[in-house]
Every structure is written in C-alpha cells, then in structure tokens.
C-alpha cells in the first residue's frame, strides 16, 4: 500500500506512535509518506520506502493565526495526487481529521477516492476536543472518517460518552519495539547518578499539568524519608520551572535531577528501579510501556487507559489520582529488595504483549477495511 501519515512531529506520544508505525509499515514493504510541518523527531529517512513532505505554512500580515489546516489539506491533496496514495492515516483528531475530510472532498471533485483513517490518541478527545470551540468539528470529522481507532478501550468509551460519534471505533493499543526498548548494561550511568547504590526513580513526560509532576515529587519525598533514592525527571514543558521551584522548596535539590529532553530514553530507563506516572488523564501511557519494556515497574494513577496497561500488584500498583500517600506506600513495597526482581520480571512480561509485531497487523486490517469500503 501507499500510505500517507499525518501527525504532530513533536515529542508527544501521538507523534511517536505515528512515526514508529510508519517506520514499521515501511519495513513490511509499504510505501509511507509522512505529511508534517517538520520532520518527525524519531524519523530516520534511511529507508527507500519512507518519504517526508513538509507542510508549508505561509504567513501574511493579515493573518493573526496562519491557517495551518488549509495548508495541510492542500498538501494532502497534492501528495495523494502526485504519489497516488491508497490511504491517509491521520493521528490526533484536531485538526488533522478535519483537514483530511477537506482534502478528501477536494479529491472527489477530481474523481479520486481516498479513504481516511483517524487515530484518536487522548487529549484530542479528553481535553481539547471536547471544548465547545472544537467539539462540532471533531464529532463531524470522526463520523466522516472511513476507519477510526482509539488507543484504549477507555478512550473509545470516552469518545462515545462525550461526542455524538456513531462510527465504530477499533481499539488498537500503543506498541513497543522490544529491539530498542530493552534493559541495557549502563552501569557507569547508574554509578554517576547513584554513587552510593541508591535506588533510582524516573519520570518522563512533556511536563504538562495533566502529568501531575508535583505528585511525582511528593511521592519521591516520602520514599526518600525511608530509603536512599534519587529521582530523574526527563522532559521539557511548561511545568519544568514550577517543578524546579517545588524541588527547592521541599529541600530535595541534592537528590532530584532534571535532564531535559533525551533521545535515548531507553538508556535512562535501563538503570531505573521504578517509574512514576500519576497523570490526571492518560489514554494509554506509552511512556509507562517503554519503562516496562526496560524491566521497570510502574506506580501510576488509575486514570483512563492506564488500567489496561499496568496490572495492579503485578507490574506495579495503581492509586486514585492525587493519592500520593498510597502511591508512596506502594512504591516502598516495589523497592523492597525482596519484591523488586519479581516486579521487574512481570513488567517485562506484560510489555511483551504489546510487541510491535502483534499490533501492526491490526492497523493493516483497518486499512484494508477502509479501502474496501470506499
Ligand atoms: O500525553 C502525552 O505525552 C502526549 C499525548 C499526545 O497526544 O501526543 O499522548 C497521548 O497519546 C499517546 C500515544 O497514543 C498515549 O500513550 C498517551 O497516553 C496520550 N496522552 C494522554 O492521554 C494525556
């Protein structure tokens, strides 16, 4: 197949899933055309089957807000025509699904039928999409897609509960490349961070409020009172400065490090003992899956799709959003040397269920159904 993939090329989970999916499809022999405003961060263009088409967003003094949706729709039209694409797969409903709808209508006037598959990732539904300023367009574009997927059953349900969506939604969970995400020997790194053999707790995210990084720090403060531990906070975003202030306030500066964005995240996870994800909402929790693949157990909230990933008492523990006391109590159970090896083993075993090769055929099936339908 010749597949056009549209996504946000940033560090967010939806962009990562779209990019890794595209790379895997290319390896399977499909021709994959990324249509984005920047080169996706995890994309290496070293495959003959991968192409990148940049969306040019023209500014003009009259525009307070440059019309990205129109530039994207126009680019989709051109790429579908020039490259003779069989299908467009858009990741994140806003505005990708509505731009794809417009592209599809334009192409129809020229006698070209292009099926559109939309993948819902989370905040496009749970936070931004349900806002009245976007909701009618989101509902319409989902209903007009030829195939719709959501990354967890929780997100599928939320979509039905929040929007007037009538379309069947296939659940296709996030996936993991176990060749890349595996525990590696990085003893020198561990010694540098934990010179006295302290335990290591890690959190990675894009530092938005929804991630509740203050809870990570509060849980860590409680753990540290009982055992020698260090905390690594990986990522960048609006919450970074306030969180640096909180660390100072709680007198934790000697034990907490902010690492910023790191490309080889699997190297950091390789030396971690515990991953904390206390999110307010989380449609799947790709970062937690990446940790589990590197044999790191997870303390998480029980929000959204996290209950479909983290197995309570087995791969880690789940608590109600904001219940930092419960999270800290459970973290101490995991970090106990008598328990840690079993939790690590279980985490890896669970991650294996989301191996890329198990998930890829599910997307291919959705593509075939969408193409047959049109
Ligand atoms: O939350 C993020 O870090 C980014 C966000 C996005 O929209 O790119 O991630 C969402 O999509 C990921 C991939 O499907 C999911 O694993 C994340 O759980 C989801 N984030 C939220 O629901 C908050």
From TrEMBL:
Coiled coil: none annotated. One of its GO terms (molecular function) is glycosyltransferase activity. Pfam families: Glyco_transf_4 (PF13439), Glycos_transf_1 (PF00534). InterPro entries: Glyco_trans_1, Glyco_trans_4-like_N, Glycosyltransferase_grp1, Thiol_BshA. Residues 195-341 form the Glycosyl transferase family domain. GO terms for biological process: bacillithiol biosynthetic process. SUPFAM superfamilies: UDP-Glycosyltransferase/glycogen phosphorylase (SSF53756). Residues 11-180 form the Glycosyltransferase subfamily 4-like N-terminal domain. This is N-acetyl-alpha-D-glucosaminyl L-malate synthase BshA. It comes from Bernardetia litoralis (strain ATCC 23117 / DSM 6794 / NBRC 15988 / NCIMB 1366 / Fx l1 / Sio-4) (Flexibacter litoralis). The lineage of its organism: Bacteria, Pseudomonadati, Bacteroidota, Cytophagia, Cytophagales.
């Amino acid at each position: 197949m010749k597949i056009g993939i549209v996504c946000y090329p940033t560090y967010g989970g939806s962009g990562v899933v779209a990019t890794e999916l595209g790379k895997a499809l290319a390896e399977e022999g499909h021709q994959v055309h990324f249509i984005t405003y920047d080169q996706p961060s995890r994309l290496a263009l070293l495959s003959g089957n991968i192409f990148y088409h940049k969306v040019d967003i023209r500014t003009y003094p009259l525009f307070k807000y440059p019309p990205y949706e129109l530039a994207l729709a126009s680019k989709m039209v051109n790429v579908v025509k020039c490259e003779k694409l069989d299908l467009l797969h858009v990741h994140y409903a806003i505005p990708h699904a509505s731009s794809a709808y417009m592209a599809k209508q334009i192409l129809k006037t020229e006698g070209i039928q292009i099926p559109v598959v939309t993948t819902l990732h989370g905040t496009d539904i749970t936070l931004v999409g349900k806002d009245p300023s976007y909701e009618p367009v989101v509902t319409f574009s989902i209903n007009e897609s030829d195939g719709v997927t959501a990354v967890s059953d929780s997100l599928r349900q939320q979509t039905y509960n929040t929007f007037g969506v009538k379309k069947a939604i296939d659940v296709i969970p996030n996936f993991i490349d176990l060749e890349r995400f595996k525990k590696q020997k990085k003893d020198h790194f561990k010694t540098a961070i934990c010179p006295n053999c302290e335990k290591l707790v890690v959190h990675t995210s894009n530092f938005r409020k929804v991630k509740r990084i203050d809870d990570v720090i509060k849980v860590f403060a409680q753990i540290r009172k009982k055992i020698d531990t260090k905390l690594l906070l990986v990522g960048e975003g609006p919450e970074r400065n306030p969180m640096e202030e909180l660390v100072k306030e709680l007198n934790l500066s000697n034990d907490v490090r902010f690492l910023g964005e790191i490309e080889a995240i699997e190297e950091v996870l390789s030396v971690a003992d515990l991953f904390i994800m206390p999110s307010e909402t989380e449609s799947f929790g790709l970062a937690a899956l990446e940790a589990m693949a590197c044999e790191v157990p997870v303390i998480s909230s029980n929000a959204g799709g996290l209950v479909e990933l983290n197995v309570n008492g087995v791969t880690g523990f789940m608590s109600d959003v904001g219940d930092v006391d419960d999270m800290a109590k459970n973290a101490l159970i995991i970090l106990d040397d008598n328990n840690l090896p079993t939790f690590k083993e279980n985490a890896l075993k669970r991650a294996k269920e989301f191996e890329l090769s198990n998930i890829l055929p599910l997307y291919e099936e959705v593509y075939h159904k969408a193409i047959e339908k049109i």
